[in-house]
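User: For my dataset I need records formatted as: sequence, then structure tokens, nothing else. Please produce one.
Assistant:
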Amino acid sequence: MPKKKARKSERKVHKETPLVVWLWTLGLGFLGYVIAEIALDVYPHPVHWASGAGGAVFGFLVGWLWYKWKGDVI
């Protein structure tokens, strides 16, 4: 007996962000903040938060590249 193809509504669609992307985003965001806290100590505190946000954006991009290249960590 031939198998029936699943309808579009029955197909499993993954819309969640992979764990590896979250790990890279949080890791590089935190690392960017800590490095800015140490290196840019004389600047106002919003500069440290902006560095952390920049690190998080960079981590998000690296995480997606890692996911496309190597897959998820689970």
